[in-house]
Amino acid sequence: MSQTTSAASPDDVGERPADLTALVLVGTLTPSPAPSSSELLGRQLLEALRPHGVTGTVVRLVDHDVKPGVQVDMGEGDAWPAIRQQVLAADVLVLATPIWMGQPSSVIKRALERLDAELSETDDEGRLLTYGKVAAVAVVGNEDGAHHLSAELFQALDDVGFTIPAQAVTYWVGEAMGGVDYQDLDPTPETVTSTTATVAAHTAHLARLLKGSPYPPS
What we know:
It comes from Cellulomonas marina. The chain is of the alpha/beta class. It has one domain (3-212): 3-Layer(aba) Sandwich (Rossmann fold), CATH 3.40.50.360. It is 32% helix and 18% strand. The longest helix is centred in the last third of the chain and has 23 residues, at 190-212. The radius of gyration is 17 Å and the shape is globular.
């Protein structure tokens, strides 16, 4: 279901010991093993998190039978319960999506619909299980719309209990009506690399703060 990055070594100069985890849900519509620009940018963000003490896992949603619905478990054959356990086990959730017809991909929207069930799931003190978890977004596409997509995703993630850091989106959009894919760029544009590094630093910082000082019961 997933692949895990190597842990940050405490001996690496300038790197923190790994004490946080991240999950990247990739919304490409292309099944594995075909390459994906959305997954590439998601993995680049995961790699940028590594020096901040974050190890991570990537799940390409289209490879799994995530049933439609708004329940924690939609019954036989539903892949979401296993993915949900990874969401709940992680300190950071990253949604990596392409732009299709000006919208997040359908599989990312389905993941958001399934996360709606978390509004009914609380701990012993009445807090959502997603409280204290931090979310970030990665967007790729060949048209304008990265800000629109991130606005949609951040609102939905906030609604179901995730916390959004400052400047928590990295993205690349090509020329309108163009045919260049992000994965075909060599090298990666410096503006994307620096933005990804900022997202990683802010996300790890906030996740560590919330892990050490959880939200109070309401």
